[in-house]
């Protein structure tokens, strides 16, 4: 039997506010455990929540950026369940009247475009962070994250492969970054997702039991987790009626490469939702929605269309550059500083991305300045340094922050372009390799490549390649 994979994602994005959703505690990442807390976010008796207006404003902006319909009336609800990361034993969220509904994003996988629908976006408070140690009989809890404002973006079950799910997460992340509502730093947990996955026979309309994979905060791990769970469910179904997939929540153990059962998955009625009695309904006038719409910046799709028209880049280059707000900004700043678009794209998509991967740094934290890269490109194109040396200079720029001219001067990396100096070196190379000279004259053209390599070796890679080759060919013909 052939099986079809059905996937939906619930994306949790921390909104980029200075304070929490219902209190004045800061939301800054990196504080010592349990320092950014107060009686309100800890839910102590006698405290009352006060909704942060900035949370509503950012949720509206996110909804508009994702093509959703912003609701003029929504409300907050209590979602009741006990788990150690929720100190008051309930979460303030939204149930039947979310702030946004509908919407969609477009993805492309293996050259095929597809629209993934969004079911809803709702506001809620984040829970604390649990740190489990399987070798200790306890878990650690950091409550700093309790009360940090979230939007949860719930997709329809429109994805049919882990690759589509990753592409959708990337697309949503880019929109949120461009809209300026979340920094989406997955390594800090400000963008996480739960993956709901089930399998069904091809042609079957009804959905089978689904499994929720909880709190995944990396594109790579999302793909791995969905692939492993897909395989696990397929194996269960292949064993027959005695082995069935049960509706449950599982976590992804990246170290062991497997999903692990956490708890039976609850349905909505298990949470005993009811309207939050301490908060009034959220009323958003149409005029406020339109005012928010007018503040939307250029979004990824519009930027991609502009890049295609203005810079003549390939679709793949455009997709990578516009998929990260920081990359697209750095590219345009480099072009504005005088670099050619194609050259700027090549250096950013090649050397910069390589350095970011090797140093495990996000694009927004990269140390280069656009004017530095533009100057490096100018040095290479002017023939002051070779392309090979340019890569060496780039690495030094990335590691030290020094300007390219200073690096070239300090290390004596200027390209040898003087005809007299090159002629002398070429004469020495030809004298030292008479057999290769004879091979060249015998019609073995590969001898030219060997001799050119010897010239570059003799100059420490600093010979102007074009000039050296022309002079070498003339010397051989003479």
UniProtKB/TrEMBL annotation:
<keyword id="KW-0436">Ligase</keyword>
<dbReference type="InterPro" id="IPR017959">
    <property type="entry name" value="Asn/Gln-tRNA_amidoTrfase_suB/E"/>
</dbReference>
<dbReference type="InterPro" id="IPR003789">
    <property type="entry name" value="Asn/Gln_tRNA_amidoTrase-B-like"/>
</dbReference>
<keyword id="KW-0067">ATP-binding</keyword>
<keyword id="KW-0648">Protein biosynthesis</keyword>
<comment type="similarity">
    <text>Belongs to the GatB/GatE family. GatB subfamily.</text>
</comment>
<dbReference type="InterPro" id="IPR023168">
    <property type="entry name" value="GatB_Yqey_C_2"/>
</dbReference>
<keyword id="KW-0547">Nucleotide-binding</keyword>
<dbReference type="InterPro" id="IPR014746">
    <property type="entry name" value="Gln_synth/guanido_kin_cat_dom"/>
</dbReference>
<dbReference type="InterPro" id="IPR018027">
    <property type="entry name" value="Asn/Gln_amidotransferase"/>
</dbReference>
<dbReference type="GO" id="GO:0070681">
    <property type="term" value="P:glutaminyl-tRNAGln biosynthesis via transamidation"/>
</dbReference>
<dbReference type="Pfam" id="PF02934">
    <property type="entry name" value="GatB_N"/>
</dbReference>
<dbReference type="Pfam" id="PF02637">
    <property type="entry name" value="GatB_Yqey"/>
</dbReference>
<dbReference type="InterPro" id="IPR004413">
    <property type="entry name" value="GatB"/>
</dbReference>
<comment type="subunit">
    <text>Heterotrimer of A, B and C subunits.</text>
</comment>
<comment type="function">
    <text>Allows the formation of correctly charged Asn-tRNA(Asn) or Gln-tRNA(Gln) through the transamidation of misacylated Asp-tRNA(Asn) or Glu-tRNA(Gln) in organisms which lack either or both of asparaginyl-tRNA or glutaminyl-tRNA synthetases. The reaction takes place in the presence of glutamine and ATP through an activated phospho-Asp-tRNA(Asn) or phospho-Glu-tRNA(Gln).</text>
</comment>
<dbReference type="GO" id="GO:0005524">
    <property type="term" value="F:ATP binding"/>
</dbReference>
<protein>
    <recommendedName>
        <fullName>Aspartyl/glutamyl-tRNA(Asn/Gln) amidotransferase subunit B</fullName>
        <ecNumber>6.3.5.-</ecNumber>
    </recommendedName>
</protein>
<dbReference type="InterPro" id="IPR017958">
    <property type="entry name" value="Gln-tRNA_amidoTrfase_suB_CS"/>
</dbReference>
<dbReference type="GO" id="GO:0050567">
    <property type="term" value="F:glutaminyl-tRNA synthase (glutamine-hydrolyzing) activity"/>
</dbReference>
<dbReference type="InterPro" id="IPR006075">
    <property type="entry name" value="Asn/Gln-tRNA_Trfase_suB/E_cat"/>
</dbReference>
<dbReference type="GO" id="GO:0006412">
    <property type="term" value="P:translation"/>
</dbReference>
<dbReference type="InterPro" id="IPR042114">
    <property type="entry name" value="GatB_C_1"/>
</dbReference>
<feature type="domain" description="Asn/Gln amidotransferase">
    <location>
        <begin position="329"/>
        <end position="476"/>
    </location>
</feature>
